[in-house]
Amino acid sequence: MSDVGYDEVARRILAAGSVTALTGAGVSAASGVPTFRGAGGLWRTFRVEDLAAPDAFARDPALVWEWYDWRRGLIAACRPNRAHEVLAAWSRERPHFSVVTQNVDGLHERAGTLNLTRLHGSIWTLQCWSTCGADDWTDLRTPLEPRPPRCPDCGGIARPGVVWFGELLNPSDLAAADSACTCDVLLVVGTSSVVYPAAGLADIARSRGAFVVEINPEATPAAADLCLRQPAEVALAELAKRIGS
Ligand code: NAD
Ligand code: ZN
Fold it and tell me: What is the pTM of this model?
């Protein structure tokens, strides 16, 4: 592995006043959580866009919940990997270090990450589909019973507390992500950079003067100043050796 890129990224992180990591499904790949666009991205014959969408849920909530219940069971058996651990350690030890994730799996939380913004919600959170006014709630059971699960307040069907295709992000999460993009170094880790608005964050950070580093074994459309073409768990472990943690 070339040391030049690692030395430069380590130097920049050490010199930075603020660092943000924007993460996607790739950080959880080594934990065994499938990405959507890599191998194994399909469930049965369904594309993810045909399951993670309000019209899909309206048409067949039982089918969509079957998919989520399967994913919840799979994720429950996974553990945070070295990539989550390094980011969590930096978030605890380094001032002004934040993590913005598109992941819904809860592995950053389980690794003990501080200053975390979840752009797409959490697969462990449930919401009332008929918006009766009930607060979102956490349900960690796998498998879920009954399925579809019910709203504790009105008894109507519950939905997963994740942001689906075609839905707007929570404005306060988006504002937190935007402010985290005012930083000296942005690490774009394990995201295909095709799902907006998350995909636009690297450009925003760069336009504000951030040095953008992409960590991904595959090339993506992200405009980065430097790319480390290694899996996240390898590259972050390598950086941690140089920086500490
Ligand atoms: P994606 O599936 O579109 O892309 C994954 C990216 O990770 C690819 O670019 C791939 O090259 C890269 N990758 C694969 N293995 C890697 C590794 N070991 N280290 C670093 N990179 C690796 O995922 P996305 O960009 O996050 O966007 C898709 C959407 O899917 C997001 O909205 C997210 O919420 C959702 N999603 C979440 C999870 C999860 O919570 N773990 C899993 C699948 C999809
Ligand atoms: Zn309700």
Answer: 0.95
